[in-house]
Design a protein that fits this description.
This protein has 186 residues and is an all-alpha fold. Helices cover 72% and strands 0% of the residues. The termini are far apart.
Length: 186
């Protein structure tokens, strides 16, 4: 019954406007037992409702990463399974939030296992060598840059991918890529 109520809440969202997403986010946060259901819906990858679930999950994580900590295994293990571009972007953003919190010695620092990092890194490299939208690439670049500060080979691989992709990608990709290449050289 609870899952059906959450599905209804996601279904009645009129569109992706922030006001509608915030309303659905508040619905989830008012009863945090909705969070595992939201994650489950995010990874029902053949259902377009997964897109809306991913949008709301991103807002829940922006409110506090504490909400996803009990479900880190599930989230990170399934990030690479998301198929819809509109669901990949919020998943990549959540990955970036996790990496940034880790870098800043936040709550994630003690919760993120070496296996989690390995899975995040693998997913990001897969996204970088695929033909993803700019936002997904940008978040993946940042995640790889952050973890590359402690795992040497990542910056070398990321640099190679960025240099190879620059000519064929958008101006936004090139700008972000050049910025990260410069940071990696210093």
């Amino acid at each position: 019954m609870k899952k059906e109520a959450l599905i209804h809440e996601l279904t009645v969202m009129q569109n992706a406007a922030l006001v509608h997403r915030n309303k659905a986010c508040q619905y989830v946060l008012n009863d945090k037992s909705n969070i595992p259901l939201l994650i489950e819906l995010t990874f029902e990858i053949k259902d377009k409702l997964s897109i809306r679930a991913a949008w709301i999950l991103e807002l829940v994580c922006k409110e506090s990463l504490n909400h996803i900590i009990p479900y880190l295994d599930t989230f990170i293990q399934n990030m690479d399974k998301v198929k819809f571009d509109s669901a990949k972007r919020p998943c990549a953003k959540i990955g970036e939030l996790i990496a940034l919190d880790y870098e800043n010695d936040g709550i994630i620092k003690t919760k993120l296992t070496p296996k989690h990092k390995e899975q995040l890194i693998s997913c990001c490299f897969d996204w970088m060598i695929s033909n993803e939208k700019l936002a997904v690439d940008a978040y993946a670049m940042m995640i790889l840059y952050i973890f590359g500060k402690e795992i040497d080979w990542i910056h070398q691989e990321l640099s190679s991918i960025l240099e190879n992709n620059m000519a064929n990608k958008s101006a936004g990709y090139r700008a972000r890529g050049l910025k990260l290449l410069k940071l990696m050289k210093t």
